[in-house]
Amino acid sequence: MAIVRSLAIGRATGSMGGITYRTIGGETISSQKRGKSSQKPSYAQAVNIVSWANAVNFWQAFEGNDRPSFEGRRPRVSDFNEFIAASRRMPVYLTRPQAQQGGCVVAPYIVTRGSLPSIEVTTSGTNGEVGTDISLGTLNVGESTTIKQISDAIINNNEGFANGDAIVCFVARQATNSVTNVPYTVIDEFKLTLNQADNEGLVTDIDPNLEVFSTMAGGDKLGMSQAVNGGAVYIHTRLTTEGTKVSTQSFVVNNTLLPSFISDAARDTAIASYGGRLTRLYLTPDVDVAPTGI
User: Fold this and answer.
1) Structural domain boundaries of the chain?
2) What is the pLDDT of residues 259-276, one digit of tens each?
3) Cβ–Cβ < 8 Å for 117, 215
4) What's the confidence (pLDDT) of residue 128?
């Protein structure tokens, strides 16, 4: 059992991917679910089990106040549930020990779904840097660039952006524990609030190394100044009387680890680590109850 102190989980309850979440005394506690039977999980059940852990651990990596957000979700359905459901399009397979140790591999997960137009984000830089389709006109962002200057450039050269909007960039950095060899992810957040009256604030106040709010080399687009091993996403946000609106976005990934965790071999290794069956038994019902009538 482990106590999870993460704003991304908050007061989570319920279960996901073999892990149960409970809130006791203001703390969110995670524990491995106990099996209801000594029978091995069926192939289908095992695939379902190993498909969730990476997405759950990726969600936990968001430790700030801003995290994946889904507009128009159904009542009593949380952003966490929507994110996990959306992650089914990209199953990443961790073994049971890797999952229990917080292992995480950066994948092209959908992190926002909303009503604002999407930002086109690609690895279009000369060295694989992540870039956007947001034009900066003639502005070349530097250490002396003010918030007003970059706000004017974005608003005047692109439709759909307004004073008071924000552009949030999440950078997910892929790393591996040198002792356990378990992959893990660190997510950094950068937020640029467009303010055409701010002549004092500098872009370096929110992005000290001009890593994500930079002019792409050889062009006029907003993007990263260097490639990242992992992934990144840019999100357009707007505060309205109805709440925060977002653009629909997913991570753009440049992760050398990802292929080895989405292969059939990775799936089978993960299934075996949970004690699941590696073959489909087509003529046997997939049930976890004692057979009747025998």
Assistant:
1) 106-256
2) 999 999 999 999 989 887
3) no
4) 76
